[in-house]
Amino acid sequence: MIVAVNPGSTSTKVAGFNGEDETFSLVVSHPVEELQAYERVIDQLEMRFETVRSALRENEIDLSTVAAAVGRGGLLRPLASGVYRVTETMVDDLSHRRFGEHASNLGALLAHRIAAHSSHARADGASCPAFIADPVVVDEMIDEARYSGHPLVARKSIFHALNQKSTAKEVAKRIGKPYTECRFIVAHMGGGVSVGAHAGGRVVDVNNALDGDGPFSAERSGGLPSGQLAELCFSGAQSHDAVKKMLTGRGGLVAYTGTNDLTAVLDAWDAGDRDVGLVVTAMCYQISKEIAALGATLCGDIDRIILTGGMAYSERIVKMISARVSYLAPIEVLPGEREMISLALAAARALDGSEPIHEY
Q1: Cβ-count burial 301-336 (b if 16+ within 10 Å, e if not)
Q2: H helical segments located in 37-160
Q3: Is the pLDDT of residue 121 over 70?
Q4: Which of 22, 74, 254, 318 could be joined to 105 by an S-S link, Cβ 3.0–4.6 Å?
Q5: Cα 183 to Cα 144, 322, 330, 337, distances in angstroms
Q6: Does residue 119 carry a pLDDT above 90?
């Protein structure tokens, strides 16, 4: 069995797989109010690990039968797409937030913990391997996409690489074309929103979905007007940490409506809250603009626009975005995330030798 763990900004997902067969799955939601009790994401590690341990106990998982643990990859140095062994260097970089802070940082750490605990259940005392796959720092951007407008600030590739890659490959199968020959625009819409241009099997341009690029989302402020942001930063009214949280966890829908729960927001709109409705409309407007901008990146030669992530379950969200961008290319909707099965299959390929294991 392979155990996959995926810590998101507001949830922890745990699942077990034998091949492509899912043997168990659990999603634990973490309300904003609960997470606000932790000053740093790394401070959530014990709480999240207890979530994982409870899931394994509830499903009577014998750790001695776990062939590998695999977690969602977090903020590391820029990496090529692929499977990476969790090393002590990786653990150290993530634990000390060397390249930034995000919930996905906990993925490798949780997989590392599972692997360590597996050693206690094995007669030989050996632990199973721990991996990550297609971490959020996958970097395949073309050179011209890295320019921001000032040499002191370079654009970075930080996005939902695992789900974007997996979803794009699934759509490539549907249309009967190798992924390496496809030209897609993929919009992952969840706690954060990343919109990527896929060409030749590479994500050649994508917004930094973490801290200050692209559309606002359920929790992210997106690309704020830089002059006003500079004034806020130097006004003395906000600390550096407060501004970072404003950008990455308390922006977007949370800042405008007080919640990251899209269902609750849409219910409030249906109940007659026009202000909430305008916020949702503005979010979809910004996502549409980002998709349209990448039409220029691909020179208008686009096989499909793909809408994925949790927001894609909402027909209203999909309809609002499609109305603005369907002139560019046909739209495919794959709601939710394929991240768990993608993690498990990547680990399986690493174990059977069909995919190389990269060392960090």
Answers
A1: ebbbbbbbbbbbebeebbebbbeebeebbebbebbe
A2: 45-58, 88-95, 105-118
A3: no
A4: 74
A5: 18, 18, 12, 20
A6: no
Residue listed under structure tokens 């490539």: 172
Token pair of 116 as six digits: 């360590």
**Domain span including residue 160:** 143-329
Amino acid identity for residue 219 in this structure: E
Residue 334 located in a structural domain: no
Q: Are residues 281 and 323 in the same domain?
A: yes
Token reading at 132: 């990550």
Residue type, 269: W
pLDDT in tens, 304-350: 999 999 999 999 999 999 999 999 999 999 999 888 999 999 999 99
CA distance 288 to 172: 22
Backbone angles phi, psi at 333, to 5 degrees: -115, 115
Nearest to 134 by CA among 81, 179, 93: 81
Tell me if residue 248 falls in helix, strand or coil.
helix
* Identity of the amino acid at 130: A
Residue in the block written with tokens 């796959």? 133
DSSP, residue by residue, 283-342: HHHHHHHHHHHHHHHTTT--SEEEEEEGGGG-HHHHHHHHHHHTTTS-EEEEEB--HHHH
**Residue in the structure block whose two tokens are 């305008």:** 278
Beta bridge partners of 85: 131, 359
Where helices occur in 175-273 by DSSP H, the ranges are 226-233, 240-248, 252-257, 262-270
CATH number at residue 47: 3.30.420.40
Q: Specify the pTM.
A: 0.86
Do residues 346 and 251 both lie within one domain? no
pLDDT digits (tens, 9 = 90+) for 75-101: 999 999 999 999 999 999 999 999 988
